[in-house]
Design a protein that fits this description.
Elements lengths: L9 E2 L2 E2 L15 E9 L7 H14 L4 E5 L7 H4 L8 E2 L2 E2 L2 E2 L5 E3 L16 H13 L5 E8 L6 H9 L4 E6 L3 H16 L4 E6 L21 H8 L3 E4 L4 H8 L9 H18 L1
Parallel strand pairs: 3-9, 3-10, 4-8, 4-9, 10-11, 11-12
Antiparallel strand pairs: 1-2, 5-6, 7-8
The structure holds adenosine-5'-triphosphate (ATP).
Amino acid sequence: MEKCQGCEYFKDGECGSSSCTFIEKGNEANKIKYVIGIMSGKGGVGKSSVTAMMANVLKNNNYKVGILDGDITGPSIAKMFGVRGPARNVEGGIQPVITENGISIMSMNLLLPNETDPVIWRGPIVSGVIKQFWNDVIWGELDYLLVDFPPGTGDVALTAMQSLPLNGVVMVASPQNLVHMIVKKGIKMAEGMKIPIIGLIENMSYVQPPGLDKPYYLFGEGKTEEVANELGLNFLGRIPIEREFVDLMDSGEIYKYKHSAFEKLIEHLLDIIKVSIY
Ligand SMILES: Nc1ncnc2c1ncn2[C@@H]1O[C@H](COP(=O)(O)OP(=O)(O)OP(=O)(O)O)[C@@H](O)[C@H]1O
C-alpha cells in the first residue's frame, strides 16, 4: 500500500482503481521494492537492449536486480547475458537463472528444450506465462525488477500492465518520426492504466565514428526530447548505436558493456524514481 500513497484512487486506506484490482499477488517468497516496465509502442527499437543496460548499471550501483522477460514469443534477454536453461523447478516455484554479474533472469528461452524453438501460442496463453513469471518465479529480495515488455500495445502488453504491480514505465523510442507516433500510443496506454511514466529514452540516436568529434545522426536528429517536452514527460537521454554493444550482445556478454551516457542516464532515472513516484 506504500506505493498507493498519493494515488488519486487511494482513499481511506482502500484502492478504488479498477485497473489495480487485476494485480496478481506474486510469489510469497518475493520482496521486491520497485517493479519497472520497459516499454515501446513498437518492436525493434531496443527495448530489450535498454532493459539489459539498465539492469547492468543498477547492478554496478550495488542494487539487487532481476529481469522478467515479458517478451514471450521473441525472448532475447537470456541470450544477451549468455545464460541457458533449463530454469529449475524447486519447492515453492521456479528459480530464476543468475547471470555472470549476478542479475536474476526469467525468460521463456530458459524453459524451452531448445532456444531456437518457436513459441506459437495465442494471446491468452502468452499472457498467462507473464503472470506465471510473476506468481511462480522465486525472485526473492530485489531492489528492482525490470520487466522487458512484450512489443506493442496489444493484448499481452495490456495483461502485463494490469497484472504486475508496476511502479512506473520507461518508454523507449528510436529517432524516426513514425516511432514517435507509435510511442505516443504506448504513453496513452500507460496513462489510461494510471501507471506513472518515468520518462522517455531515445535509443540508436546517433553514431560516433572513430576520429570524428561530431556525432553522426544516421536517422536524422531524433525528436524524442521534443515529444517528451510536448507531453510534459521527462527526457532521460540518448543512447548511441555502438558496434561494441552488438558484439557483446552476440557473444552473450552484455554485462561487460559500459557507456558513460548510460551511467548519467541511470543517475537521472534513479533521481526521477525517488522524486516523482515514491
Ligand atoms: N544502442 C544500440 N547499439 C547497437 N545495436 C543496438 C542498440 N540497441 C539495440 N541494438 C540492436 O538492435 C536490435 C533490436 O534490439 P532489441 O532486441 O533490444 O529491440 P526490442 O525493441 O526489444 O525488439 P523486440 O520488440 O523484437 O523485442 C538488436 O539486434 C540489438 O543488438
